[in-house]
Each structure stands twice: as structure tokens, then as C-alpha cells.
Amino acid sequence: MNWDRRWTRDMFAAASLLAGSGGLFGWAASRLLTLDVTPAARAMQLDSVAAKLLPRQATPAAIRHQAILADPFRPERSPASIAFRMPSDASAGVAVVSHTPEEGLVLVGTALLPDGRSFAMCRIGADPPRVVRVGERVGEYTLRLVTQGQARFETAAGRIIDVRVPKAGS
Predict the structure, then answer these.
(1) pTM given for the model
(2) How far apart are the first and last CA of the chain?
(3) Strand order across the beta sheet in which 160-164 lies
(4) Between 43 and 75, where is the model more confident?
(5) Residue 81: inside a domain, yes or no?
């Protein structure tokens, strides 16, 4: 391939790229100039979208959802009477026992991190403290849940034990 053909091919590619980007810029500019962004036009667009999404007949659930969407901070709202639990939550039907000091499990501290990477620092008896992540074992205890200043462990027998960080001076 000689130099003239390569130069012609490169120039054709550059011209095509320039024409394509110019066309894209022109299309974007025309969309920007014809877009109506006044508050009244925006409200009209939202009403038309809501009319398409909401069911034709107003069911009690739809009325409740419309009320919630209208004012999520209304004073008559109250939390649910029963807390939501995930189906995989093992402690849903198990009695929780508070930690007794004779078991030897001491919670030194907890760290709450995003994405389920929380951990607890604990020790058993006179052993040095170690970091335990959810699902890991320390002695005969398996760490199941970490909250602020508290950790939930499960024994091999299935007994759930909540351990709190001791208060300073105790």
C-alpha cells in the first residue's frame, strides 16, 4: 500500500468521524432548543405519566399509595406494629438469651461497615482479643449479627446469645 492510498483512507475516516459528531451535536442542540422545561409543562408531563401508571379503578391499596406519595411526612403516619424480618433470619422463632459472664465471651467492640462487612472484636476468657466477621467462629460461638455496641452469637446447640460491650468502669 503506498503513501497516497493510506493518506486518502485516513482522511476519509477523519471526515466521516467529523460528520458523524457534527450530526450528533446538531441533534442534541435541536432537542435542547425544543425542550419545554417550564414548571407548568413539567407538572403536566408528570400528571400524564401518573395517569398511565395508576390503575383505572381506585383500589384501597392505590388510594393508600396515593396518600403516601402526596405527603410522606403527614403526622398520622405510624410505624408497622410488627417489624419486618427476612425469611432467612434464623432468629425469628428462637428465644434470645442475654450473655452471662461465666460463659467467658467478652465483646471488646464492634464496627459497622457498609455492604455487610461489619465485624466484632471479642475474646474468650484470658485469650487475646480477635476480630470476628459475621459467619465466623470464635470458640464454640458463631457470630450472626453485629449492631452498635452489641453482637449476637449462636452456639453449636442453636442457642442465641446477645453480648454487649461492657460500659467503662464496669
Answers:
(1) 0.42
(2) 87
(3) 96-98, 160-164, 150-154, 141-147, 137-138
(4) 75
(5) no
